[in-house]
Amino acid sequence: MSTASDSVPRHIAIVMDGNGRWASKRFMPRIAGHRQGVDVLKRTVRTCVLRGVRVLTVFAFSSENWKRPPDEVSALMDILVVALSRELNQLKKEGVHLRFIGSRKGLSERVQQSLLEAERETAENITLTLNVCFNYGGRWDIANAAQTLSAAGEAITEESLSRHLSTCADGDPDLIVRTGGEMRLSNFLLWQAAYSELFFSEVLWPDFDEAALDKAIAAYASRERRFGMTSAQLPGARNIAS
Ligand code: FPP
Prior knowledge:
Blueprint: E1 11-15, H1 19-25, H2 30-51, E2 55-62, H3 70-93, E3 96-101, H4 109-121, E4 128-136, H5 138-151, H6 158-163, E5 175-178, E6 197-200, H7 210-221
Parallel strand pairs: 1-2, 1-5, 2-4, 3-4, 5-6
The structure holds farnesyl diphosphate (FPP).
The site of farnesyl diphosphate (FPP) has 19 residues, from helix 1, helix 2 and helix 3.
């Protein structure tokens, strides 16, 4: 049982897995699965806005994805640039604030420009923050925060480190969803996941529709988040003694 008014997660994070398998099942190139994945991401953003989710963080390209065949890597870069140029106006209308999280090192000038433009153009939007983790790794995020603190001569504490993580403006994810049937975090938001509820779906990302997202949200609503406390200590808990 969740605590009152917590039935919709404020911050959802998603590992969008299963694009390649979705395409292979249809005898299509893997990249067709990634293209379909962009459409699903668009619809997911809309559903999140309708459900009152405030932050959506998605894993679009991990630090480890550079190990994929070069044509898949360059196709993913192209998909990102094309999707941004096609969808930016609509995202602006929907009140979506786009942020890209991850290292910009290794990204081409063209990709970097397109990320910067999308961030600049949507900076004033407040309905939903969409964090796209691109060239991102959880270990990179933690190391980066530690290096920033160390360079500034600041003490490294849980609090100071949290303040320097790439998602510090958005709070930790309440719910992390991974599609595609695998049950691991794969270097996604490692620090931020400390108290996230986890939901693993068998559905491949290109098939992840509104009903699948609602199922994840319903599972979240049924969890009791205790953050180390006992049930009786939670706000709204019935006092058994009285
Ligand atoms: C994992 O599926 C998916 C990715 C590495 C890319 C995710 C990208 C998208 C959903 C498209 C949206 C992208 C941008 C750039 C906004 P996989 O390829 O590992 O699938 P598999 O496990 O079935 O092989």
